[in-house]
Design goal:
mainly alpha, disordered N terminus, 2 domains
Length: 203
Amino acid sequence: MSRLSILAPAGLAVVLAVSPLAAQGTAGSQAGSQTGQQTGGSKPREMKPTDPSQIAGERDEDFVKEVAQVSEVEIAASKLAVTKASNAEVKAFAQKLIDDHTATGKALATLVKGKNASWPPDDPGMKVKKQKHESLQTLTGAEFDKEYLEDMISDHESTLARVGRQVNGGKDADIKAFATTMQPTLVEHLKMARDLKARLFKQ
């Protein structure tokens, strides 16, 4: 079985088991089993032992996956900003994101482990998220600072939109509560990034 580290700052790796069919959940399997018993139909397909997702719906698992992946790439981008940013305030903002997302990662990893959620380590969504920040590697000075802030603004706008959908329509109570708890921190990050960009890059 392959394994995937989620939100793994130096010296602190949280590892979750991987399952390619986790998004199907157990709810559909249980419902199918009940239907088969009631109608006398064929026996429903059983889920493999490595597919024990307990999350209440696909939307919930998608949310957990999205938040975990975005947080991981934001931590990586922010670690780069701590060393490459030319502005002290941008460096301080990057360090705050590292600290906050690492703390969120610990809580999220505990939640995900409890729900037995999983996804493959070569997930296409993760590749896309990493590619979004690749240009930061080649930039320096004010150009780096501006693009880093723009990336964080874009990431947090997207994540907050997803958090809002989860808070309003999530099925899993634990994940919905987690989304509600993390919302204020994301709002704070977005405001900080927007304010910094507006102040440092007026054009």
